[in-house]
Amino acid sequence: MSYEVNDYEYDSVTSLSGPERYQYLVNKIVDWEEVWSIKDQSGWSLMGDDTDNELVPIWPAEKYASACCTGLWKNCEPETIDLETWLEKWISGMSADGRSCAVFPLPSDKGLVVTPEQLEKDIREALLQYE
Fold it and tell me: Which of the listed CATH numbers 3.30.70.270, 3.60.21.10, 3.40.1350.90, 3.40.50.620 matches domain 20-128?
């Protein structure tokens, strides 16, 4: 079962700064053991930064990802990735492809850009608190 975000939490969290949303995302990923991204019929969606580097957009819950399925992403739908697959396949794949993560973008904000290695480090550190 995935994490369900209520309207109050949605409004509160989307008003946080990029670094605060990043910490929220790491905590929710660890709590619920899933990452959300978006895809359309041709595959996973990417975004670019100001220098045309490819970024994988990620969110901690479906409701946040769904809110960004507008404009260029209007044909996209949120999809979950389990945490084990994220850590074992996606992180190394993004590194090999030279991609970074756009963490928790909003319709009005591109989100915080982090390397897959930094995100993995932060997730694994948060996981240690559960052991």
Answer: 3.40.1350.90
